[in-house]
Amino acid sequence: MEIKVLKTTVASKNETGTQCFEYIEGEVYDIYNDLAEVFLAEGWGEKAIDDLENQAIDNLENKQFKTKKVKNAE
Fold first, then answer.
1. Would you say 42 and 6 are in contact if contact means Cβ atoms under 8 Å apart?
2. Do the beta carbons of residue 10 and residue 20 sit within 8 Å?
3. Angle at CA 39, nearest 5°, toward 7 and 37?
4. H or E stretch including 3?
5. What pLDDT, in 10s, does the model give residues 3-58?
6. Mode of pairing for the β-strands spanning 45-47 and 20-23
7. What is the pTM of this model?
8. What is the CB-side half-sphere exposure of residue 18 using CA atoms within 13 A?
9. pLDDT band, very low/low/confident/very high, at 70 (cuts 50, 70, 90)
């Protein structure tokens, strides 16, 4: 799951817990699901995909679609 880190945290890099990794605030990481759920529950991160979807929706809502009148060439 892609997580945008809200608080720099040292945590496991893999499901076996054999490696530690520093997740840096403001960065987006593809984190395995169990750890991603911990990041969400503890407030250390948020789903990155939701942010991108919300930004796309906001951008669409803020744009006005204008049509051009085209003269027919005769």
1. no
2. yes
3. 170
4. strand 2-5
5. 999 999 999 999 998 999 999 999 999 999 999 999 999 999 999 875 556 666 66
6. unpaired
7. 0.64
8. 1
9. low
